[in-house]
Amino acid sequence: MSDSTRPEPSPPTGDRQCSDAPRAADTSVKVLHDGRECLQRLLAQQLPWWPYSQIPNTDKKQRRVLRDPEARKNIEILAARLSDAIDLNRRQPLRRSVTKRLAELLCELRESLCLETLLDTRRSIELLLLGRADLPLLRQRTAEEYAEEETTLLSWRQLYGADLPELLNDSLESPSKQAENSTRQRLRRLVAARFELYRPLRARRRLRTIYLWYIAPVLLFTGILFGFAIGTRAQVVLLAAAAGAAGAALSGLLKFRDEVKLGAQVREFLGFYLMQVGVGAVFGLFVDLFFATGWLKLTPNPAGIGVVAFAAGFSEPFALGIVSRIIKITERAPI
Fold it and tell me: Do 94 and 160 belong together in one domain?
């Protein structure tokens, strides 16, 4: 049969039932090969440059998952874990109960391909493999975790310190059984703790995003009213709002470059970035209104107002400093 006519394995979604889970170990190992191949085919799908275009040979649910960078990252990691399971089985055949459990986890993923299922399947497979890992796999996983940087929610170095794990010490050709068991338990605790931390983080991010949809229109509406209320000099008002928004946009961009490292932070950044631009515009309007009061001996021209408005949008402490100064002025004013 030619490659063009060979049927492709179905991706890990669909109507296939898992009640007939494989009973023989060799059949379960074949499921591991098939599962890895399906995941690799999903990763090989070329995403169109236009986000609303359809991805060939995928249904609506798969398209939504494949557009999520975090889901694609977990698909890639899960495929790598299946490769580890296959290699481990070649070195020392896995127990029938282990291969059967791995097959069941892949069946559950096939029934419901989404980020939550990917995370649950990845956690279960990682813990299952670490419980049965031999020395080469333990060394591989320890090296991977030890090399993780701060971009991971919880890394080996954050949990256990920067000391080199005993299994990675090249001077020890055959580490003790105690060192193997200790490293195994450390890896399992790290994986479990990482996923336990990630769940409430995702819940808080969803909650913040939900409330953002209510807060943003309020800010937009009040900002527009603010602009119209002081719009006696339309050009200066527009300049102040635009300068404040530009300062906030630049500040958010620098923060994104230097401080946003975790994937969860990246996912929630856009909504709050747009909100911050609106806050910068309001600060700019406030600066214009402040100079219009005549409380300062200095009366800047429109360019000066634009500079101060940009600084207020760029730096919240600077804008709050102006507010604090106004409070002090009003406290000293006679009643």
Answer: yes
CA-based torsion, 97, 102, 107, 112: positive or negative:
positive
* Joined tokens for residue 204: 């808080």
Whole-angstrom CA distances from 214 to 67, 209, 274, 282 are: 26, 9, 14, 18
What SS3 class is residue 67?
coil
Per the domain annotation, does 8 fall within a domain?
no
C-alpha 282/C-alpha 316 separation (Å) is 12
Same domain, 243 and 185: no
Instruction: For residue 111, give its domain range.
Output: 25-201
Q: Would residue 4 count as lying in a domain?
A: no
State the greatest distance between any 2 C-alpha atoms of the chain, in Å, as a whole number.
95
- What 8-state DSSP symbol labels residue 168? G
> What residues contact 241, with CB distance under 8 A and at least 6 apart?
223, 227, 281, 282, 284, 285, 309
Would you say residue 126 has pLDDT above 90?
A: yes
Identify whether 280 is part of a domain: yes
Contact 223, 281 (CB under 8 A): yes
Residue 3 placed within a domain: no
**Overall number of domains in the chain:** 2
Smallest CA-to-CA distance from 245 within 223, 271, 218, 222 is with 223
**CB-facing half-sphere around the CA of 181: CA atoms within 13 A:** 3
**pTM metric for this prediction:** 0.65
133: left (phi over 0), alpha (psi -120 to 50) or beta: beta
Q: Is the pLDDT of residue 179 over 50?
A: yes
Do 86 and 144 fall within a single domain? Answer: yes
170 DSSP 8-state letter: T
Radius of gyration for the alpha carbons in the chain, expressed in angstroms and rounded: 28
Q: Over 80: is that where the pLDDT of 182 sits?
A: yes
Cα(66)–Cα(123) distance, rounded to whole angstroms?
Answer: 20
Q: Which two tokens stand for residue 300?
A: 């800047």
Determine the Cα–Cα distance for residues 195 and 115; give it in Å rounded to an integer.
13
Give the whole-angstrom CA distance, residue 209 versus residue 218. 15
